[in-house]
Design brief:
- This protein is an alpha/beta fold and 217 residues long.
- Helix content is 53%, strand content 17%.
- It is built from 11 helices and 8 strands.
- The chain is globular.
- The relative contact order is 0.12.
- The structure holds erythose-4-phosphate.
Length: 217
């Protein structure tokens, strides 16, 4: 399973990349806003940190302009994945950009039907949004499972990129189902290391070590 980092925070990306935990990065307009930086500048910097795919999202809503924006974003670095929304125009842009050899991430996917269209349009990645489905009392994980089944039934090569990850359980559940990639905020990836029994066990070991009076260094 690949981990993408869902952020435009270069310090967080650098830390996770140094640990081998950043197989790629996803950004979106909200994350660019949060970074307070210019999209081209920050995306270029991210592409210099990670060698895997870095998703950068188009803003246009009509296919011709999406394609132009996608080409401009793709010129930033060879590891750019152009992110387009799962609309009819987004699918047209996906088909054109993937036909030109660019990686394309079709985002804002909320149904299996949409995911099939993304695969048919040649998407490199399709991004089902788990958390936002959970927010409206639907089961985001059911969607990941449905897409996995369908893609396996037909041998679609599009990678399932589980997105809108809010919890550690989202990561492990998506892994159990067989999502190809999970993109999660740095905080969720770090939280995966935490367990109360680890903390408790370590506290006991340290207390007992103190009693031995020994030193390693
Ligand atoms: C994915 O590429 C998106 O950037 C992201 O996962 C959206 O997550 P959110 O629903 O927490 O904003």
């Amino acid at each position: 399973m690949k981990f993408f980092v869902d952020t435009a925070d270069v310090d967080a990306i650098r830390e996770l990349n140094d640990l081998g935990m950043a197989d790629g990065v996803t950004t979106n307009p909200s994350l660019i806003l949060k970074s307070g930086r210019d999209i081209l500048e920050v995306t270029r910097e991210i592409c210099g940190i990670v060698s895997g795919p870095v998703s950068a999202e188009v803003i246009a809503t009509e296919a011709p302009a999406m394609i132009e924006e996608g080409r401009k974003l793709a010129r930033i670095a060879p590891n750019i994945a152009v992110k387009v929304p799962l609309t009819w125009d987004g699918l047209k842009a996906c088909k054109a950009l993937s036909g030109e050899g660019h990686m394309v991430n079709v985002t804002l996917c909320f149904s299996a039907a949409q995911a099939i269209l993304a695969a048919k349009a040649g998407a490199t990645f399709v991004s089902p949004f788990i958390g936002r489905l959970d927010d409206i009392n639907l089961d985001g994980m059911d969607l990941i499972a449905d897409i996995r089944t369908i893609f396996d039934n037909y041998g679609f090569g599009t990678q399932i990129l589980a997105a809108s990850i809010r919890t550690v359980n989202h990561v492990t559940d998506a892994a159990k189902i067989g999502a190809d990639v999970v993109t999660a905020p740095p905080g969720v990836l770090k939280q995966m290391a935490a367990h109360p029994l680890t903390d408790k066990g370590l506290a006991t070991f340290l207390a007992d070590w103190e009693k031995t009076g020994q030193k390693i260094l």
